[in-house]
């Protein structure tokens, strides 16, 4: 029998394969390499914008139809499996809520559950192929490590876009390079392509294109530019054009979402008769100061109706809107980049980098004002977008929407650094001072350095919040930097850099000398956020005349007015305004006392430890702010009294246990325990303001200190007290707060 050649066997095999139904759906051997085992006829691709080649929305082709994966129960383990299917070694992260844009077609998988070791996604548990209750607003994405599997055959992986992509955009100043202050607001538009930075031909360049570019670079708007000047300048310079056609609508959050036309590698004539595209962006007042452009800014018109809360970095946070004088949150249903970009530009930032859902920036409290916001991207305010007003049953605070906005590059992070720490998040603070030619690094005096100053330092470093602000840094090596170049630093906590805080300037005055008495920080990406349940204070307030013989322990802990010292003990009584306080932690980190258990103070009289000497301040104020009675509450026991349904208690004081308040839990101080009162024995009848402030000395870092104060109107006739209109300090608009402080009857402080 004559031997058959390998080539002939291949032809017979190919013919057999084409006739066999089991081969249907597989790529043709003549056009693609053999597919890996385990993927079982599936094909995978990364899709969406903006993205890099190793990240995107995951799409699967099954039975000839492309579809997506729902983010319900999606985990990093599932991302690992999918990244291997895509030819990468592993996943570094995953995204939810259609970060790369919503897909189309089927949603193939829902409730995907993988251990991470599976060879194929088909080995993972799920609801079954095509069985899903999700929408494309819940499409999952992956971020893979930019490292390919050795010998990977990628016939089952398809890139959804084959043309070039724009990963980054920048403005390059055409004149005065290196001397112009940051941020750079005007110059040539340059895009980063796979082979480097290139210019864009200005033929057909429109204001819509400029609007998109400025938004990507952190600027809310653009202005006209002197094109003739730049055309004249371009004749003396050489340019490398990579794009010759850009057509944006103006609502895109990224240039890659516009229609783009790229030059081919063999194009010899590029941008004939044209020049490089130029933009001039208008910074918000927050960033204009550093670029000397304050005069270009219009005055703010009225009070802001949108704000961000709970973000670790500038330009990010939970979206809150003002309605009828009260702040509330936005439900994340149909929340997308267009709506997020409207918020960002309204606040003076650029377009949105991310539209966040699922209370990624912490849960709000109180009203939820808006749902199903649908913006075109051209609206001047979120309130101009079509939306639906909702009831309490429609949405919960676990669905609060958030944003991350594009910010201008200011370079403030290059003027500060940490040294001596065990990680990049901690260390002795060093700042750069001096002018060109005389720059030097130095330390900050530790005198009066506290949490607010540390918060600004961590923000400038780009490291989020401050866990601790340290006045002494004995255990961190100072290296060769020993000179103290800044002292008297005093911040409000909202500044973007330490330069914006009050300080002694060039005159350095430090009470304690030596590099070990200098400022240090420990930073964190998350922080707690305490909030008092104001309605409970209003519901539980009452007056009690308590005999002195029952107040010895309270007097020992300074819970009575100073006049109690001269009282005829044990006879007589003190008049107390009592109420319950329920303190919630709505942040993204547990609230823990600053001091460890080794330094807690034991109080024999009450039989408990104090982990914080002053946890809350209680004050009675006149309408003009004069304090007429005060009290304070030590942290007798910080613990989780109750928690939300899906949260477990972590802290319990019994048996010298750990103290704290878990995220999603609250600590309840009942009205009938010692020191849960204000001694009003000496207060005359009249109209007053009851004020409660949590964490008043900023001993423990929080993501937001503006919501730590609660105020109530109260009317006292000498026998009874009425407490009403209780609210968190930042829950009302400025105008509503002014009305609160002058409500009818408060002009006269005497009851007739």
UniProtKB/TrEMBL annotation:
The record's region (Disordered) falls at 290-312
Entry-linked Gene3D superfamilies? SRCR-like domain (3.10.250.10)
Under InterPro entries, the record lists: LOX-like_protein, Lysyl_oxidase, Lysyl_oxidase_CS, SRCR, SRCR-like_dom_sf
Q: What GO CC terms are in its UniProt record?
A: cytoplasm; extracellular space; membrane; nucleus
Q: Which EC number(s) are documented for this chain?
A: 1.4.3.13
**Gene Ontology biological process terms from the UniProt entry:** animal organ development; collagen fibril organization; inflammatory response; negative regulation of T-helper 17 cell lineage commitment; tissue development
Using the record, list the residue span of the signal peptide; answer none if the entry has no such feature: 1-25
Post-translation changes: The lysine tyrosylquinone cross-link (LTQ) is generated by condensation of the epsilon-amino group of a lysine with a topaquinone produced by oxidation of tyrosine.
Residues forming the SRCR domain are: 44-145, 171-282, 306-406, 416-524
Q: Name one GO molecular function term.
A: protein-lysine 6-oxidase activity
Q: Which cofactor does this sequence's record say it needs? A: Cu cation
Q: What UniProt keywords apply to this chain's record, in alphabetical order?
A: Copper, Cytoplasm, Disulfide bond, Glycoprotein, LTQ, Metal-binding, Nucleus, Oxidoreductase, Repeat, Secreted, Signal, TPQ
Q: What does this protein do?
A: Mediates the post-translational oxidative deamination of lysine residues on target proteins leading to the formation of deaminated lysine (allysine).
- Full protein name: Lysyl oxidase homolog
The gene designation is LOXL3
């Amino acid at each position: 029998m004559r031997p058959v050649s390998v080539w002939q066997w291949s032809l017979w095999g190919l013919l057999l394969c084409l006739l066999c139904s089991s081969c249907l759906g597989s790529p043709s051997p003549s056009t693609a390499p053999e597919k890996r085992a385990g993927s079982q006829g599936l094909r995978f691709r990364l899709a969406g914008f903006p993205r890099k080649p190793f990240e995107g929305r995951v799409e699967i082709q099954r039975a000839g139809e492309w579809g997506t994966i729902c983010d319900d129960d999606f985990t990093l383990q599932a991302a690992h499996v999918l990244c291997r299917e895509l030819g990468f070694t592993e996943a570094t992260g995953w995204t939810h809520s259609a970060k790369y844009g919503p897909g189309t077609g089927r949603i193939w998988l829902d409730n995907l559950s993988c251990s991470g070791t599976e060879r194929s996604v088909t080995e993972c548990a799920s609801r079954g192929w095509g069985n899903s209750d999700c929408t494309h607003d819940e499409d999952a994405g992956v971020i893979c490590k930019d490292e390919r599997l050795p010998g990977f055959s990628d016939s089952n992986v398809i890139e959804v876009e084959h043309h070039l992509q724009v990963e980054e955009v920048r403005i390059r100043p055409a004149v005065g390079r290196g001397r112009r202050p940051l941020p750079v607001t005007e110059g040539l538009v340059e895009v980063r392509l796979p082979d480097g930075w290139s210019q864009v031909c200005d033929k057909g360049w429109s204001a819509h294109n400029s609007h998109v570019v400025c938004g990507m670079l952190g600027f809310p708007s653009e202005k006209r530019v002197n094109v003739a000047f730049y055309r004249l300048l371009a004749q003396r310079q050489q340019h490398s054009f990579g794009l010759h056609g850009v057509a944006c609508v103006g609502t895109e959050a990224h240039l890659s979402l516009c229609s783009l036309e790229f030059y081919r590698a063999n194009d010899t004539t590029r941008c004939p008769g044209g020049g490089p595209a130029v933009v001039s962006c208008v910074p918000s007042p927050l960033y204009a100061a550093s670029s000397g452009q304050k005069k270009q800014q219009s005055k703010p018109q009225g009070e802001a109706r949108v704000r961000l809360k709970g973000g670790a970095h500038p330009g990010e946070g939970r979206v809150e809107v003002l309605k009828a004088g009260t702040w509330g949150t936005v439900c994340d249903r149909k929340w997308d980049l267009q709506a997020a970009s409207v918020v960002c530009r309204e606040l003076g930032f650029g377009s949105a980098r991310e539209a966040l859902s699922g209370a990624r920036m912490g849960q709000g409290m109180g009203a939820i004002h808006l749902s199903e916001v649908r913006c075109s991207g051209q609206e001047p305010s979120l309130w101009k977008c079509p939306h639906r007003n909702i009831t309490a049953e429609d949405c919960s605070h676990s669905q609060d929407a958030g944003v991350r906005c594009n910010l201008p590059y200011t370079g403030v992070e290059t003027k500060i650094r940490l040294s001596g720490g065990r990680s990049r998040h901690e260390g002795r603070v060093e700042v750069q001072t001096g002018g060109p030619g005389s720059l030097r690094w130095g330390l900050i005096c530790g005198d009066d350095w506290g949490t607010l100053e540390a918060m600004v330092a961590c923000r400038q470093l780009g490291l989020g919040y401050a866990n601790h602000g340290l006045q002494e840094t004995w255990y961190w090596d100072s290296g060769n930097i020993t000179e103290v170049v800044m002292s008297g630093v005093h911040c409000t906590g909202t500044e973007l850099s330490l330069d914006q805080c009050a300080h002694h300037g060039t005159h350095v005055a430090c009470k304690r000398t030596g590099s070990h008495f200098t400022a240090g920080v420990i930073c964190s990406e998350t922080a707690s956020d305490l909030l008092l349940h104001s309605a409970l204070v209003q519901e539980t307030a009452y007056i009690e005349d308590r005999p002195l013989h029952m107040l010895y322990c309270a007097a020992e802990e300074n819970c009575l007015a100073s006049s109690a010292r001269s009282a005829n003990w044990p006879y007589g009584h003190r008049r107390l305004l009592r109420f319950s306080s329920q303190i919630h932690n709505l942040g993204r980190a547990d609230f823990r006392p600053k001091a460890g258990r080794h330094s807690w103070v034991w109080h024999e009289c009450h039989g408990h430890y104090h982990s914080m000497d002053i946890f809350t301040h209680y004050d009675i104020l006149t309408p003009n702010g004069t304090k007429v009675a005060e009290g304070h509450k030590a942290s007798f026991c910080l613990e989780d009294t109750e928690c939300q349904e899906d949260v477990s208690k972590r802290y319990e004081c019994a048996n010298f246990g750990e103290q704290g308040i878990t995220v999603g839990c609250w600590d309840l101080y009942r009205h009938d325990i010692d020191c849960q009162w204000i001694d009003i024995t000496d207060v005359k009848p009249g109209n007053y303001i009851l004020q409660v402030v949590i964490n008043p000395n900023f001993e423990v870092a929080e993501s937001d200190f503006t919501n730590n104060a609660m105020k109530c109107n109260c009317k006292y006739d000498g026998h009874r007290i009425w407490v009403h209109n209780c609210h968190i300090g930042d829950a009302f608009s400025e105008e509503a707060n002014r009305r609160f402080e002058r409500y009818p009857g408060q002009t006269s402080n005497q009851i007739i």
